[in-house]
Amino acid sequence: MKILLVDGTVLGRKTGAILQEIEGYIQELAPSFELEIMYFSEYEHQIVDGTPLNDDMKKLVQKFEEADAYIMATPIFQGSIPGVLKNAFDMLHPKTMRYKPVSIVANGGTYQHHLVVENQLKPILDYFRALVTPNYVYTHATHFDAENTIIDDGVHDRLRELARVFVQYCEMSSTLSKEAIDQN
């Protein structure tokens, strides 16, 4: 099973650090999974404006299409997900993420920003009919040290639990037939 861990920002390193931790937890639970972290900062982004996609955006879309499941990581800026993440969603066909498991991790500068996951990111993933796990992990700047290492034991516990539930969703989703997905 191909798992795409998406670092949905071009700024900062905290979301990437979270994904690296989750990658390790998933590998412990499901060593056969093929995991890849996609760092948006490594792509030349293009605004969806009707013009043909550049090569980087074609690669980004292809990685989303080929994945069987996703861990979406996003910082919260100005009470919203980054524009590059929304723009990436705008490039995807509505069936790209259909019936595929998705777990969410987010990071913000205030504790109230966790509501962006509920009020903005989950509705987007619901539009795609993704199988969004019921638990997500929200981190705050105080959960990291100066090198962006997670220093909060509670966060590590929540990330382990997120990985456990995600792996269960992946196993459940493997019984969905491609034919059923294509028809719906």
Automatic annotation (TrEMBL):
Entry annotated with the keyword Transferase: no
Pfam families membership: FMN_red
Classification via InterPro entries: Flavoprotein-like_sf, FMN_Rdtase-like_dom, NAD(P)H-dep_FMN_reductase
Residues of the NADPH-dependent FMN reductase-like domain: 1-140
Keyword entries, A-Z: Flavoprotein, FMN, Oxidoreductase
Any GO MF annotation of the entry: oxidoreductase activity
Segments passing through the bilayer: none
Protein name: NADPH-dependent FMN reductase-like domain-containing protein
Organism: Lysinibacillus alkalisoli
